Amino acid sequence: MTISIGDRVPDGTLTEFIENAEDGQSAGPQAFKVSELVKGKKIVLFAVPGAFTPTCTNKHVVDFIRDAEQIKAKGVDEIWCVAVNDAFVMGAWGRDTGATGIIRLLADGAAIWTTALGLEMDLIARGLGIRSRRYSAILEDGVVTQLNVEEGGEYKISGTQTILSQL
Predict the structure, then answer these.
(1) Is 81 a catalytic residue?
(2) Is 13-166 a CATH 3.40.30.10 domain?
(3) Which residues form the Thioredoxin domain (predicted)?
């Protein structure tokens, strides 16, 4: 079953590559409980099929980097990008795109959280395994208040223009 507006996101673990040890946080891959990350926060979340893939890299993440200040000015605490990749890949993608420090790049390496959301897609036949569908959402204290799920390989409704109009 796919998550819907009004639902609380399931708990799970997402991993983030931390570039520098600070505030008691070690550098390298660090696991975080979703329930703790969302508590009391307004979060804009977007998910992509994969780091370093063309649309994800050249359009989706670029748009969120470009519009991050406008999004945060509307009361958003954090912007997340979730992909079914490992934390090392997400960290490298953040460095490569300039997203590090602007967007939290969160890895769902085995697609466990993505599957719990009901937003996985099977790309095994194309050599990509189980991946996330492309979507964006607004979460308030862990509850989905907006959800924009793309069809197929499209990038029409999950970008920053839609999110900015919904905030």
Answers:
(1) no
(2) yes
(3) 3-167
